[in-house]
Amino acid sequence: MKVMHVDSSAKRETSNSRALARHFIDELRAQGVDVEVDYLDLTVNTPRHVDEAFAIATYRPAEERTAEMKITLAASDALCKRLFEADAFVFAMPMYNWSMPSVFKAFVDSVTRPGLTYLAQPDGRIVGQLNRQKTLFITTRGADLRPGGMFASMDALTPALKAAFGFIGVAEPTFVDAQPLQFSDQEARAAALARAKTELSEVAVQWAVHETVAA
Ligand SMILES: Cc1cc2nc3c(=O)[nH]c(=O)nc-3n(C[C@H](O)[C@H](O)[C@H](O)COP(=O)(O)O)c2cc1C
């Protein structure tokens, strides 16, 4: 299974989302899945922000693009190719200011491509093209945004990820959200990490079973 593993935390050794993503890949291997990882650290290789040249080129039909427009889109094309070649996605990220880290938003902007990762049908329907890959989002949050808590209404991350990836074909993503972490006591933090690890182990088992059935 070729897994595209994407990290986006500004932290490194002390990052919980990075550690949880590594844990998931280890669990997948422990389940006997032959995992090939295509790794992308968005804090090192940050897709460039949408600028005027990109905004124009991306909506120009491929056959009408100038050589300059093709150069403008080349890095985005290459990222989309990596997504298409993967069998599964593991996207790990912290919540920053209730939504996704800006490097991950730059990634979303780079891979949401008309005529490539989604096709607009003549009747107006949108058909996302990344509909083959299993998708796991691992998010880490300092606060506790679970239903019933006082921050529950602040979760602008989950709906944003569902909408953006649903548009390009990811119909049933899995979410493992570790919370509360930074803004809680030691005990609650440890419990949140333990819960997330248990959920990740369960997802690894599901992916392994699916892989066996599909083989
Ligand atoms: C710039 C910044 C903004 C943050 N904003 C939020 C937030 O809006 N809500 C929240 O619950 N936690 C927030 N946090 C806390 C992180 O989500 C939390 O520490 C998380 O575990 C970080 O993941 P990491 O260890 O992989 O970096 C923020 C942290 C930073 C550094």
Automatic annotation (TrEMBL):
Binds 1 FMN per subunit. It comes from Paraburkholderia saeva. It holds the Pfam family Flavodoxin_2. Its cofactor is FMN. SUPFAM superfamilies: Flavoproteins. Residues 1-199 form the Flavodoxin-like fold domain. The keyword Flavoprotein applies. Belongs to the azoreductase type 1 family. GO terms for molecular function: electron transfer activity; FMN binding; oxidoreductase activity, acting on NAD(P)H as acceptor; oxidoreductase activity, acting on NAD(P)H, quinone or similar compound as acceptor. Its EC number is 1.6.5.-, 1.7.1.17. It catalyses: 2 a quinone + NADH + H(+) = 2 a 1,4-benzosemiquinone + NAD(+); N,N-dimethyl-1,4-phenylenediamine + anthranilate + 2 NAD(+) = 2-(4-dimethylaminophenyl)diazenylbenzoate + 2 NADH + 2 H(+). FMN binds at S9, S15, N16, S17. Homodimer. This is FMN dependent NADH:quinone oxidoreductase. Quinone reductase that provides resistance to thiol-specific stress caused by electrophilic quinones. Keywords: Flavoprotein, FMN, NAD, Oxidoreductase. It is an enzyme of class 1 (oxidoreductase).
